[in-house]
Amino acid sequence: MALLEVKNIDKNFGKKKAMDNISFTVNAGHIVGLIGPNGAGKSTTMRAVTGLMSYSSGSINFDGQSVTFNNHQALDRMGNLIEYPSIYPNLTALEHLKLYAMDTKQPADFKELMQKTQIDGDNFGKRKAKNFSLGMKQRLGIAIALIRNPKLVILDEPMNGLDPQSVHDLRGLIRSLADEGVAFLISSHLLDELQKLVDDVVIINHGKIIETATMTEFFSHDKVRWTLATSNNDAAVQLSKSNGWDATLDEGHVQVSGAENLQQVITAINGADIQIQSLNTVTGNLEKSLLDVLASDDKGE
Ligand SMILES: Nc1ncnc2c1ncn2[C@@H]1O[C@H](COP(=O)(O)OP(=O)(O)OP(=O)(O)O)[C@@H](O)[C@H]1O
């Protein structure tokens, strides 16, 4: 049975359908990306799952218990960081952890948690939060989300404002927790980062789920493409088109897709006395796959 099961959820803001029959699942130990354009309904969905937002119909089941706006029991085993963490300027990191642990019976070990989230060094424990950088605040937010030893952690845009090293460290932390069995539901606009992290994707558009898939399945939307620099790019584009392949010229490179394999492309181009100067195979790009799926959905396909 899935750890989180969201079934046929609806939510309206006036006439606006923010969630329209939303259904998806999250399995233990899986990192799931909730992905979609601005205003698609990601935050609303995350808020509903964490019991912060009411919904008009459907059900949310987490770890065998129902989650509603009025039933928060299940949240004992769920952590979340939605937008910015609630941080008090005059408290230290350790004081925050003690504060957030107050209403939980078996909190995580503070020292271990601070080590895991890298908030143990540099006198972090003794400094007041008003002196923290954005990255430090974000790491503290993640530590707070982990205080209840959660089975599921919900992170809305957790990489916002972080420098590349902090993003890298955060990815490592999430992956190691997932390997221990913790599940994650993450939304982010940083698709390159998500691509390196998530196991499954849930794609949302205009309040509707338009696809749920493993990352590998999802990549099948993005056809294999070859990017070439040649001695005569215009001729290479024409030649590819005459073979029935899709071909465009993009920033000085010929982009070819639709051929059966790379050898076909090389043979045709070499056969026309055009020299290939560089060649790259491009496949499995989350951004490209997402744009393709959203474009088909918006066309009503
Ligand atoms: N409290 C609210 N009152 C009225 N409309 C709302 C409210 N919260 C969200 N909406 C609307 O519901 C829709 C979904 O919003 P939501 O914030 O969930 O989208 P999102 O996918 O998280 O977008 P973003 O990526 O921009 O954060 C939007 O059209 C938004 O304007």
From TrEMBL:
- What keywords would UniProt list here? ATP-binding, Nucleotide-binding, Transport
Residue ranges annotated as transmembrane are none
Q: What SUPFAM superfamilies does this protein's entry cite?
A: P-loop containing nucleoside triphosphate hydrolases
Note one Pfam family from the annotation.
ABC_tran
Entry keyword annotation includes Transport: yes
The GO terms describing molecular function are: ATP binding; ATP hydrolysis activity
InterPro entries in the record: AAA+_ATPase (IPR003593), ABC_transporter-like_ATP-bd (IPR003439), ABC_transporter-like_CS (IPR017871), P-loop_NTPase (IPR027417)
Q: Which parts of the sequence belong to the ABC transporter domain?
A: 4-231
Q: Which family does it belong to?
A: Belongs to the ABC transporter superfamily.
Q: What is this protein called?
A: ABC transporter ATP-binding protein
